[in-house]
Amino acid sequence: IWPRTTGARIDHGPMPIGCGRTAPPHWESPRPPSWWGLAFTLGADASLLGSLIFGAIFLVTIAPGPAPTEILPAGIATTLVAVAAMALAAALAELGVRSARVGTRSPQGPLAGAALCQLVALVALAVLITDLPAPTRHSYAAAALVLVAYAGLHAAIGLIFSAWAWSRCLAGYVSAARTLDLRLCAMWQVYTAVAGAGVLFVLHAVSAGLRS
Prior knowledge:
The chain is mainly alpha-helical. The chain has helices at residues 33-62, 76-102, 108-130, 139-170, 180-211, and strands spanning 15-18, 21-23. Strands 1-2 form a two-stranded antiparallel sheet.
């Protein structure tokens, strides 16, 4: 909600701030407070993910009863679709940033593509979730559900990020100097791709270990 009140439709460049010094407005700055805010948020987010993954692996070894081996029974193909879609969304978001900075092509196409890719990832992750064992069957099954849902939540937020950045382009708030909205979008998409691939890899690896 807050970014809706910020930004500009024209480039201001460095502005006087007193004592003979100048500084750009934050939407033209390379590392404004909102950029650092998202960076630290993702750092905390990664800590949460690490805790969830450790908890899932710990529950396999410590929880009573045999852990289910049919985690992600939808198979490798659905997993690869989800991972590829999230990775392509990240690449398209980065392409959107470069397009805006160069100014030779509109970033709206790549951003729309990123949103579509995250929608595909959401569908694939939903298929994986519906095929998971019941979370009441074993604590590892519950942890697996949380991990896949974590990836799905981030893909959904990535879709919102892409739509938001696309709308800012359409409204004239993006230029070669004003790429903050696009850079925040790309930062989230890259984290989502890495985290989502990590989650699915761990679940497949643990399931393979349980079956062996």
